[in-house]
Amino acid sequence: MDLTYIFVHGLSGWGSYDEQYKKRPYWGMGGGDLIHYLRRCGFICYAASVAPSGSAWDRACELYAQLAGTRTDYGIAHSKEYNHERFGPDFTGRPLIPVWNSDTRIVLLGHSFGGATIRLFGELLANGDPEEQKTENCSPFFAGGMGDRIHSIVTLAAPTNGTTAYDMSEDPSFDASAVKFSLFHRFLSRLVSNHTKIRMDERDVRDYASYDMHIDNARALNERIKTLPHVYYYAVPCSGTLAQPDGTHIPAKNMEPMFYMRAKLMGMYSGTTRGGTVIDSSWRENDGLVNTVSAMAPANAPYRAIDPLHIEPGIWNVWPTVYGDHMYLQGGLMRKHDIRDFYIRLLQTIESTRK
Questions:
Q1: Domains and CATH numbers, the chain
Q2: Mean pLDDT for the stretch of residues 52-68
Q3: pTM higher than the cut 0.90
């Protein structure tokens, strides 16, 4: 049975339903359209489009609607709790993939916050949601029972266990102003911050990606998401920093300038989250947005270093750390990277488990 590969972008990203994708594909960036290349190599690939700043729940619902070719249903219980409309974008008559049924086997690949999106998607597809099942006209997505449609889940530079990029800014014991940066990096940081500012509407603040990526909130999400026994799991962490004799990490020379300041701060930070999670020196290695240790397996899940000759379902197979910043696996932003060979190896590894 052929596998269908569904690529899900991260925070502030875009997919094939978005006009921006035609101008600059999220998957491939400066190096060229990765989806088009993989299709030429014989793989069945599609790029989903989900809310750039939405929560893992909202994005998972939108992903389901695209695959099923229906209107997005965020659920009655969820929409009431988080104060937004029940229904969202309508994909009726324009599904992402031609066929979506019990014979379909999909591989979900999520970059950055796309990792949380696809993991929660898998949980809901398999086990549904008890609260939504109590409501009238429950979406089939919340009923569950469709987990056998998933073959593999792949997280790419994903904040699976949260990221200190958010928590350190709320820690009163960490004085970020004392860290020295060049005028160029200070200017670029302000420019990027203004450009990527997200307008907050009347929705509950808990219904955004920025909430889910806090370490304590990521832990709560992980406790909800089960490791499905029949699914093959892969995690690909990235690292764009260099260890220093004093135990800190500094950005490597080839890091995208937009990540430089954040990477340096994350490379120095240690502390305790509001929920009591201790952040020690093992969290300092990072890719400019995500801590390398966080991009491995969920803290509550079984895992091991990947052995391409012996891959089993129901356990996280952790790929060797890729040495590049947070957008390296996307082909780079200001710096171009040819990542085609990496994805060919990755997809060939997944294909080797196809039955």
A1: 4-163+207-240+290-351 (3.40.50.1820)
A2: 97
A3: yes
